[in-house]
Amino acid sequence: MTGSAPPKLHPAAGGATHSPPMLSQALLIARLDLHRRLRDRSILLQVFLAPILLAVIVGGAFSGGGGNLDATIVIADADRTAVSGAVGSALTQTNTTDGESGGVTFETVPVANPVEASALVDSGAADAVIYIPAGYTAAVTEGEPATLTVVGKATSPIVTGVARSVADGINTRLRAQYIGTETAVRVSEQTGLPLDPAQLTEALNAEDVVVVADSRLTNTFNIMSFFAPGMAMIFLFFVMGTTARSVLTEQRDGTLGRVLAGPTPATAVVLGKAVAVYVLGLASMLMVYLVTTFAFGVDWGDPLGVVLVILAVVAAITGLSLIVTGLARNEEQAQSMTIIGTLLLAVLGGTFVYSASGPLSQARAFTPNGQALMAFIDLSAGQANWQDILPRVGIILAIGVVSGAIGLISIRRGLQP
Predict the structure, then answer these.
(1) Rounded Cα gap, residues 285 and 240, in angstroms
(2) Per-position DSSP letters for 3-42, written without gaps between them
(3) Is the pTM above the cut of 0.70?
(4) I need a surface site. Which of 50, 95, 130, 145 has the fewest CB within 10 A?
(5) Residue 286 contacts by C-beta under 8 Å, 6 or more apart in sequence?
(6) pLDDT tens across 141-173, in order?
(7) Residue 367 pairs with which residues in a beta bridge?
(8) Helical packing angle, 390-415 and 368-380, nearest 10°
(9) Where are the domains of the chain?
(10) Which of 19, 14, 13 lies closest to 269, judged by CA?
């Protein structure tokens, strides 16, 4: 490390020498690297202050100066069955009737095709549309693939995310009801026990086909709960790019060579810097979480779920930073790769434009920040708890492990004499 002497060899019995365990060396390097970074005011600004300020500014611009969501989501019904009608009725009954403004308002509009559904958004009649295609009910009851399409505005990513969460809830609830009914019928046929038709009818027509716990969504769909983690992750990409520049600078100045000339292996050096980056990134995300929660009243959802997503996404970003470190050959190249990679992942992950359909929505599933944003939206929307987002956490961690392994191998090869 710059300004620090390499670890000394310690004499052992018989004049032999031995080196400290690699983990101890890595932790020592991490501590020194953290100490150096915390003295850099620009790093502190990028890690802690800038994400919160930018989230407040951008969130305020997109929300029109309001903190809570005020939007209209239309249920575009092309199926026109009793079930699709019940879905629309259940949602519209959650609308406020006290004359106050704000919150999410649901409306039901009959349409003939997806084009008419999209036109509702384009004309400004809806902020987002949940399109129920013709044959949807039949597909659900027959156990065939059935999909609800969500159409939203590029300028209203959080509304689109809310609509997607509601659509997922509709799918899950309807499938659960029909699977339960089908199971009851089959059991009755196999056992010969009588089946009460009234109970089946009551199950299929239950009022809680879709449950919206709080139609006004106060402190639930605050626009900050989308932009705060998104902005924090963008800045993390930039800050973690400094790892690559740090290694390359020390390699150019000869500091790294002097460290590697001693008993410290290249793996310990890289692991130490990775640990330092991870701790810094984790502190940044947790700071954004705590400040927006207690200072701005943002409800991110299940705290355990939020922490799990933060731990996973910081690990994934750390792994990606190791790839940049391994591929870059000089500081300028590392900076260029960091900028290009950050902007590309921000676009694909939905940080700038959260698309509910099309190529971008599919690409989002393959990016760590995209998976994290979807998890954060589900948590803040009250549609998921920590157990529900475990698959997304697993995907994010897998990206981190794979990218980290590739980066470590590449860095070790680059540091070998």
Answers:
(1) 13
(2) T-PPPPPEE-GGG-EE---HHHHHHHHHHHHHHHHHT-HH
(3) no
(4) 145
(5) 307, 310
(6) 776 777 888 888 766 766 777 787 787 777 776
(7) none
(8) 150
(9) 20-61+222-415, 71-209
(10) 19
Q: What is the Cα–Cα distance from 153 to 87, expressed in whole angstroms?
A: 23
CA angle 63, 64, 67 (to 5 degrees): 50
Concatenate the DSSP letters of all residues of 112-181 into one string: SSHHHHHHHHHTTS-SEEEEE-TTHHHHHHTT-----EEEE-TT-HHHHHHHHHHHHHHHHHHHHHHHHH
More confident residue, 356 or 337: 337
- Give domain 71-209's CATH architecture: 3-Layer(aba) Sandwich (3.40)
Q: What is the pLDDT of residues 273-328, one digit of tens each?
A: 888 888 888 988 888 888 888 877 778 889 999 999 999 999 999 899 888 888 88
- Give the CA angle between residues 213, 218, 221 to the nearest 5°: 85
The pLDDT tens digits of the residues spanning 112-123 come to 888 888 888 888
Average pLDDT along the chain? 75
- CB neighbours of 14 closer than 8 A, spacing ≥ 6? none
Task: Give 242: exposed, middle or buried? Use CB within 10 Å, 0-12, 13-18, 19+.
Answer: buried
Tokens 């009608």 belong to 85
How far is it, in rounded angstroms, from Cα 240 to Cα 319?
A: 10
Contact 364, 350 (CB under 8 A): yes
Q: Are 356 and 163 in contact (CB under 8 A)?
A: yes
Q: Residue 405's CB: how many other CB atoms inside 10 A?
A: 13
Percent of the chain with pLDDT over 90: 9
- Quote the CA–CA distance of 282 and 291 in Å, as a whole number: 14
